[in-house]
């Protein structure tokens, strides 16, 4: 078993600015939540899905606070603004993709995508994701050009396509801090899962 505990940064000179917290809100997600009858701002009446909470978190500095448990992620979580996705701990909150129970899902989807300096994902386990269809597609669990991934466990992500890479993390910018990245793989049982590089982390730029 290969384990990588890492602190990575791409694009020298990146400084994380303090997101404007004025007017920012916290949106709660829990396994017993409900997307249809709440605005998610009260921990007693949380959302059921991360997707719903993330859609509500539109102001700079907003936080999506995810409770303990396993949360099925049915589409890539896109952080293209100053928002924080925060779990209860990397051994307590799991973001689960389809590759856990349905390998070779068509179409598959990545776990999280960060493209803003102040986008943050922290204190979660990210597992069961894979690159999208198409040869040479990169990025499984995490794809990032900016932002921060911190104190996460990135494991059990897989590629079935030719020439892919960065199954755990594919990054051309941003930083990965104090994360455990292990047991991500390319499945060579298919013709597609070959010629793969940087299975755990692929850094470019």
Structural overview:
By secondary structure, this protein is mostly beta strands. The protein has one helix and 18 strands. Strands 1, 2, 3, 4, 6, 7, 9, 10, 12, 13 and 16 form an eleven-stranded mixed sheet that branches. β2, α1 and β3 form a beta-alpha-beta unit. The radius of gyration is 16 Å and the shape is globular. The two termini are 29 Å apart. 46% of the residues are buried. About 5% of the residues have low confidence.
Secondary structure topology:
Layout: E1 3-10, E2 26-29, H1 50-56, E3 62-66, E4 69-72, E5 77-79, E6 83-86, E7 93-96, E8 112-114, E9 120-122, E10 125-127, E11 142-144, E12 148-150, E13 153-155, E14 158-159, E15 169-171, E16 174-182, E17 185-186, E18 201-203
Parallel strand pairs: 2-3, 3-6, 4-7, 5-8, 6-9, 7-10, 8-11, 9-12, 10-13, 11-15, 12-16, 13-16, 14-17, 15-18
Antiparallel strand pairs: 1-16
In short:
This protein is mostly beta strands and 205 residues long. 3% of the residues lie in helices and 34% in strands.
What low-confidence regions span 5 or more consecutive residues with pLDDT below 50?
Answer: 10-20
Instruction: Provide the structure class.
Output: mainly beta
Number of helices: 1
Helix fraction? under 10%
Major sheet description: 11 strands, mixed
| Inertia-based shape | globular
Distance between the termini: 29 Å
DSSP strand (E) fraction?
25-35%
Radius of gyration (Å): 16 Å
| Number of DSSP strand runs | 18
Order of helices and strands: EEHEEEEEEEEEEEEEEEE
Mean pLDDT over the residues: 83
Oligomer: single chain
């Amino acid at each position: 078993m290969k384990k990588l505990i890492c602190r990575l940064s791409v694009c020298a000179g990146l400084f994380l600015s303090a997101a404007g917290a004025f007017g920012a809100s916290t949106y709660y997600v829990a396994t017993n939540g409900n997307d249809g009858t709440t605005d998610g701002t009260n921990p007693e009446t949380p959302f059921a899905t991360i997707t719903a909470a993330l859609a509500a978190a539109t102001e700079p500095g907003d936080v999506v606070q995810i409770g303990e448990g396993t949360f099925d992620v049915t589409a890539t979580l896109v952080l293209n603004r100053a928002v924080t996705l925060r779990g209860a701990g990397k051994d307590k909150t799991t973001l689960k993709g389809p590759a856990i129970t349905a390998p070779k899902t068509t179409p598959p989807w990545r776990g999280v995508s960060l493209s803003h300096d102040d986008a943050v994902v922290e204190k979660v386990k990210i597992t069961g994701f894979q690159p999208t269809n198409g040869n040479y597609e990169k990025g499984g669990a995490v794809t990032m050009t900016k932002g921060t991934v911190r104190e996460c466990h990135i494991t059990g992500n897989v590629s079935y396509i030719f020439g892919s890479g960065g199954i755990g993390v594919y990054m051309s910018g941003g930083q990965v801090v104090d994360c455990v990245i292990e047991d991500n793989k390319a499945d060579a049982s298919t013709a597609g899962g070959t010629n793969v590089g940087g299975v755990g982390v692929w850094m470019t730029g």
